[in-house]
């Protein structure tokens, strides 16, 4: 199974992607996580990326595309993977299609988690308060910028996938269990998971 989670910051895509990865035993690839980890190890790439992350801007397309293109070719992704936070621009979406096509593969579904903006801000601020290691971009200064970037650069990607018949719109309000039940239902209707498991 090769699927993508898209949603505004705080929409719960990380949580849902993780659950689906656990159920399907597929790798969960979060570009945000990969970049933050690279920064922690002091890698040059990570340090470069943090300059964008800390300002709520997107890291350059070529940087994230090369990370994912390399990662999805690893043997553990042979059965598929759960992408989280990639692609975030039309350029990234096109590159992903090309990269998969070279190997005779293609995306099977794009799961959009829809959450109202005031709820998103509440969730991100709460996450910053309860987290043992708060993220540098979960701040009242950076959150509005991340939401604006989502609207400008990532929402067009939804259209790109809608035109290709891949987009599944999912109500992201409610508890993680409630949202996951909707995620499963969308995947069941596309016959990507069976209804008896999970
Ligand atoms: P996330 O963990 O998905 O909320 O991502 C945190 C930050 O990492 C984003 O605000 C961007 O600065 C950067 N980032 C993550 N994924 C991408 C991507 N696909 N393209 C560009 N920047 C990204």
Descriptive report:
The chain is α/β, with parallel strands linked by helices and 198 residues long. The protein has a domain at 2-29 and 81-189: Rossmann fold (3-Layer(aba) Sandwich), CATH 3.40.50. It contains eight helices and five strands; from the N terminus they run E-H-E-H-H-H-E-H-E-H-H-E-H. It has helices spanning 13-24, 31-40, 44-53, 61-71, 90-101, 117-130, 143-163, 176-189, and strands at residues 2-7, 28-30, 81-84, 109-114, 167-171. It has a five-stranded parallel sheet, with helices on both faces. Helix 2 crosses helix 3 (44-53) and helix 4 (61-71) runs parallel beside helix 5. The protein is globular and about 40 Å long. The relative contact order is 0.19. The mean pLDDT is 96. It binds adenosine monophosphate. Adenosine monophosphate is lined by residues 9, 30-32, 35, 52-53, 56-59, 64, 85-88, 92, 137, 146.
């Amino acid at each position: 199974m090769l699927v993508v989670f898209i949603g505004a910051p705080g929409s719960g895509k990380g949580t849902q992607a993780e659950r689906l990865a656990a159920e399907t035993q597929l790798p969960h690839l979060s570009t945000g996580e990969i970049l933050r980890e690279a920064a922690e190890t002091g890698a040059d790439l990570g340090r470069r990326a943090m300059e964008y992350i800390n300002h709520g801007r997107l890291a350059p397309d070529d940087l994230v595309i090369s990370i994912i293109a390399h990662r999805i070719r690893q043997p553990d992704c042979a059965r598929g993977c759960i992408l989280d936070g990639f692609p975030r621009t039309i350029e990234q979406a096109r590159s992903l299609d090309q990269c998969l096509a070279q190997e005779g593969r293609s995306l099977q579904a794009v799961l959009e988690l829809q959450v109202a903006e005031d709820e998103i801000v509440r969730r991100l601020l709460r996450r910053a308060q309860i987290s043992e290691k708060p993220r540098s971009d979960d701040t009242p200064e950076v959150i509005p910028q991340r939401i604006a970037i989502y609207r400008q650069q990532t929402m067009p990607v939804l259209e790109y996938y809608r035109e290709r018949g891949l987009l599944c719109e999912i109500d992201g309000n409610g508890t993680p269990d409630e949202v996951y039940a909707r995620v499963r239902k969308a995947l069941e209707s596309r016959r990507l998971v069976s209804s008896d498991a999970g």
